[in-house]
Amino acid sequence: MSFLTTVLAETAVLAEVEHAALPMPTFVYGLIGLVLFAALAAVVWSYRDVANRHQAKAKAYADAHGGARSGH
Length: 72
Fold this sequence. Notes:
62% helix, elongated, 3 helices, mainly alpha
């Protein structure tokens, strides 16, 4: 039996198998993904401008360690 006939035989068997129904409508999966990405975006958004909140500490560190940091 060649590879092609084996693949065709398997696809014919798989085509006859009845698939189980999904537990919820398909658009709900998209909504879950949208809500998940929105929540992750909110977490990322909450970290914006964090470095600028501590300018006094950054300046004190730079002064104590020889001025501005090199371009690492």
